[in-house]
Amino acid sequence: MISNPVSVPPPKLRIVPVENILPHEKGDIQRSQPLMERLKRAEFFTNPPVVAEFTDEMYVLMDGSNRHVSLQNLGYRHILVQIADYETEWVDLGVWQHIVADWDAQRFLRMLEDIDHIDVNDGWDSKAVAQVLLRDGPVYSISAVVDSLAERNATLRQVVESYHVNATLYRTPLTDPGLIWSLFPSGVALVMFPHYQPQDIIDAAVQQAYLPPGVSRHIIHGRALNLNYPMADLRSTLRLKTKNQQFEEWLRKQYAQRSVRYYAEATYQFDE
Q1: Is residue 9 domain-shared with residue 62, that is, in the same domain?
Q2: CB-CB contact of 181 with 89 (8 Å)
Q3: d(C-alpha 272, C-alpha 269), whole Å
Q4: Residue 261 forms part of a structural domain
Q5: Dihedral sign, CA of 114, 115, 118, 120?
Q6: Per-residue confidence in pLDDT tens, the chain, 272 aa
Q7: Neighbouring C-alpha atoms within 13 Å toward the C-beta of 95
Q8: 106, 184: one domain
Q9: Is 78 within a domain?
Q10: Which of 196, 201, 187 is nearest to 132 (CA)?
């Protein structure tokens, strides 16, 4: 929790090479494919992905993997990002819970039990790689013997893939099952993940030991939204230095025209 929300600094924005950004999680095809179609027709780039700079001009993607992979697949050489720093109070790292919906709970459990090298046990286990709460009440822990981050994340990817390709997946920060089931009437199970440290995210990116899509949750205090920067300027063949000079001039005009407004309160957006 930040000590003084009024003192949140303005976002650090920059245009960087798409290839210099390392994802820490697998892309979500349920989200990236429709997004790619929208980006083909879009005139403006609205919400920049958030990255952490871990070496000179190399970045780990915190949030926005589907925007990143979509522009990459569309042939963009550069992307507009917001650079944040794990070492400050302006970044909080948490996890999303997964709601498995529009499927059969018992079939879901059977698919989990068919995954090699994991055990599905009754009850809660704080050392498990994930927990599963069924809508009708039973709790199961998913355990696996793993010797490395790569093995642990590979196990998690198998778990998520078991329902990602068969069910509808919703992400939520909520933890109250009663509230979750009331908001998601088609949900049959809630999958809960352990918390991570910033170094886990960096190591996952550098080692290509990817987390499943939609597990890590980065809360960026002072996140830049609705920039509406022209897509044509991102697509242009100008040199990167020139593009950033143009962008900085564009950004100065936004501040001069009082187009930038900071909201300190937490918000819900209904247009995602």
Answers
A1: yes
A2: no
A3: 7
A4: no
A5: negative
A6: 555 556 789 999 999 999 999 999 987 666 677 888 888 899 999 999 999 999 888 999 999 988 898 899 899 999 999 999 999 999 999 999 999 999 999 999 999 999 988 999 999 998 899 999 999 889 999 998 888 889 989 999 999 999 988 999 999 999 899 999 999 999 999 999 989 999 999 999 999 999 998 899 999 999 999 999 999 999 999 999 999 999 999 999 999 999 898 888 877 777 66
A7: 19
A8: yes
A9: yes
A10: 187
Tokens of 253: 């005009």
Question: What is this structure's pTM?
Answer: 0.87
Gap between the Cα atoms of 185 and 177, Å rounded: 12
Range of the domain at 111: 97-192
Do 180 and 136 reside in the same domain of the chain?
yes
Give rounded-to-5 percent helix, strand, coil for the chain. 35, 30, 40
- CATH code of the domain containing 60: 3.90.1530.10
Total number of domains in the chain: 2
Question: What count of other Cβ atoms lies within 10 Å of the Cβ of residue 206?
Answer: 14
C-beta of residue 6 within 8 angstroms of C-beta of residue 264: yes
Residue 204 inside a domain? The answer is no
How many residues can be counted in the chain?
Answer: 272
Does residue 70 sit in the same domain as residue 111?
no
